[in-house]
Amino acid sequence: MKSATSPVSRRGFTLIEVMVSTAIMIVIVLAVVTIASDTFKAYDRAVADLTTQSEARGVLDAMEGDFQSAMIRPDGRCWMEVILPGSAKAPSGAITKANIGDIQSVDQPIIMFFASPPDRPRWAPSTTSPRVALKGDVCAIAYRIGQSSPFDAPGDPIQQVYGVYRTIIDPENTFKEAIPLIMTSTAAAPISPWDYWNGTSGTKRSFANFSSYSPTYVPDTRALIDFNQSTT
Questions:
Q1: What confidence tens digit (pLDDT) does each residue in 181-225 have?
Q2: Where are the beta strands (DSSP E) in 38-119?
């Protein structure tokens, strides 16, 4: 006798079930992507803030060391100066010649003074040996917030880095050019550090290493903090 077997019924997903499951999966994927994107943005902001704080600490340490060794003589002459190029109270040269060297001016403040920084240039730049030590320890120092390119002068706007720049003139050139210029200052014809840096009484100084100077005269410029790394 043959036993009759009932056929096994095979039933798949209906179209509505497929659409509902697909919609749920899309919602879950979008939620995961959104959470991951927010997490990465928060991480980037945290890293940028930590980087900025670290660089800011370096700026303050450098400024502290420079100000502690600043040379300010009580002789009535201007040994330290802070100006805002383009402002109404700025020197006349700062209005018409706001671009200093290779740093583009966006009416950014400049502080100029004389000090004996521990990281001052100590050797004359030369390809010959033995090296020649620079005499003296007083250097002309300038801080400026501005835009500059690390590749050329001043570089395309997309290459320019907006940050704090610190420029040091070696002690020998400071003694030969900057200090004698300040010493000629009188009440009738005042001379300030701006006259030295802007070149009112001579050659305009540059704020970058890639300026076209002779091998024996290269200002040392360092970007202490890069504001472009900060994100909002």
A1: 888 888 888 888 888 887 655 444 544 333 333 334 455 666 665
A2: 80-83, 110-115
**Structure-model confidence comparison of residues 20 and 149, the more confident one:** 20
- What is the layout of strands, in order, in the sheet containing 139-148? 80-83, 110-115, 139-148, 161-169, 220-226
Preceding omega of 180 cis (within 30 degrees of 0): no
pTM over 0.90, yes/no: no
C-alpha distances (whole Å) from 186 to each of 74, 99, 146, 178, 221 are 14, 27, 31, 15, 31
* CA gap 84, 230 in Å, rounded: 24
Residues 6 or more apart in contact with residue 84 via CB below 8 angstroms: 90, 94, 107, 108, 109, 110
The DSSP line for 110-168 is EEEEEE--TT---B---SSSS--BPP-S-EEEEEEEEEE-SSSSS--TTT-EEEEEEEE
Return the biggest CA–CA distance within the chain: 133
Q: Give the start-to-end residue ranges of the domains of the chain.
A: 39-229
Residue 12: CB partners within 8 Å, gap ≥ 6? none
Closest CA to 211 of 163, 154, 131: 154
Instruction: Measure the N-to-C terminal CA separation of the chain; round to a whole number of Å.
Output: 84
